[in-house]
Amino acid sequence: MRRFLSRYLPLVAWLVFISYASSASFNASNTSRIIGPLVLWLFPNTSMETLATIHFITRKIAHFTEYAILGFLAARAFRTSPRPGISRRWFLISATLIIVYALIDEYHQSFVPSRTASVFDSFIDMAGGLTALIFLRKRSTVFADKRGSV
After folding, report:
1. What is the DSSP letter of 82?
2. Ramachandran category for residue 116: left, alpha or beta (phi over 0 → left; psi -120 to 50 → alpha)
3. Do 113 and 78 form a contact (C-beta atoms < 8 A)?
4. Nearest-angstrom CA–CA distance, 130 and 125
5. How far is 150 from 78, CA to CA, in rounded Å?
6. Alpha helix locations (H) across the chain?
7. 3-state secondary structure of 1
């Protein structure tokens, strides 16, 4: 049970965090209260148009990053499963989780009055998660090749 929890609890906790981040607490007007003053403190002569662009890009990077973390946590959980059916298919299971959760997350946002749902954001989410999975798959292949040639 302890190994099960150590494998899956971080994944479930991150899914809960993503759902919380899709709430009104993380809407654009709330995040601009953090990003705007920080940018203006670092670069006091920033125009409002530039500030809006920085805010937009920062939010998109956050989408990519939160799902890249999801990809790492999903791979960690499924690759180390004692069940061969899961551990052999870790990439497919992780990718499916990322894609389905990205779509559900944006659909959920369509019901939050201060948020907007965007398929574009779902694609950014998926790109982040799949990038992490591809990185891990390539990394494990490189390590397997090095072990085989030693």
Report:
1. S
2. beta
3. no
4. 9
5. 28
6. 2-21, 28-42, 48-79, 84-88, 90-109, 119-149
7. coil
pLDDT (tens digit per residue) in 80-103: 898 999 999 999 999 999 999 999
Report the distance separating Cα 136 and Cα 58, nearest Å.
Answer: 25
Q: Buried b vs exposed e over 31-63: b needs ≥16 C-beta within 10 Å?
A: bbeebbeebeeeeeeeeeeebeebbeeebeebb
Instruction: Give the whole-number percent of the chain exceeding pLDDT 90.
Output: 60
Where are the chain's structural domains?
Answer: 2-149
Write down the pTM of the prediction: 0.85
Contact 62, 121 (CB under 8 A): no
- Separation between Cα atoms, residue 147 and residue 53, nearest integer Å: 46
Contact 60, 127 (CB under 8 A): no
User: What size, in residues, is the chain?
Assistant: 150
Closest C-alpha to 18, from 62, 61, 54:
62
